[in-house]
Input
Amino acid sequence: TINFSADYWDDVFDHFLKEHKKGRTPNPDVLCNQKIKFKVFLEHALSLGADKIATGHYARIDQDENGYQLKTGLDDNKDQSYFLHLLNQQQLSKSLFPLGEINKDEVRKIATDNDFITADKKDSTGICFIGERNFSEFLQTYLPKQQGNIVDQDGQFIKHHEGLAFYTMGQRKGLEIGGGFSNSGEPWFVADKHIDRNELVVVQGDHPLLYHTTLIASSPHWVGNPPILPLACSAKIRYRQQSQLCLVHPTDNGQLKVTFDQPQRAITPGQSIVFYDDDICLGGAIIETRN
Output
């Protein structure tokens, strides 16, 4: 058994906490794949004489004259290419994804036929190191509370929050806003964060403030050769979202400006936007702002 917990803390968890302190919502699973599973673990396996590593990700690897391609898994409900978009050519060349060609039901049948004790194990959800624990409670063990105001779209005070780090765009659960704040019985959702004044903006129902058409993303990474920009493609702003048609433009400072054909709900700074050409995962970037 090899312990990579120190690497995980330095390369993944520390970044996770720093981003939340800024009021952003990072994606540690993406970074874990890039920095831990397909870096330090892969390097260790190769040092032992292994040719490649095999993981249980629902994705596929293909190869043509231009190099290796990362493709979506054939099971649309389990495709995990979103979490693998930071992998490079060397990492793909040394990896195998045997589950990418089959669906989850078939995987369970194979496990049952071979008497695996995990055959009926519940699918894992949530962030890997948190598991099924309450996310806000987990964060509060590492980040201090910083009380501020929760306001509606007009700036009217509703109640106090315990820190912007504990909320994300589009969030409904945990706001605990009862009746008496409006004439509507619709649920409340997080629409924005005003970091400079520690203010959380909430709206009711399917409000227009939850939707944006354009975003700016930083630190672009391409799995293969960088595409020629501007690029018409599709993109996901969160896991398991259906790919959305968009146009990607370069900016003067090396970032990307992405304009969607249709407004997108709860675009979240700190999360990954991942680009696709049909079933090929092209790469991705980190969402900074939205309009």
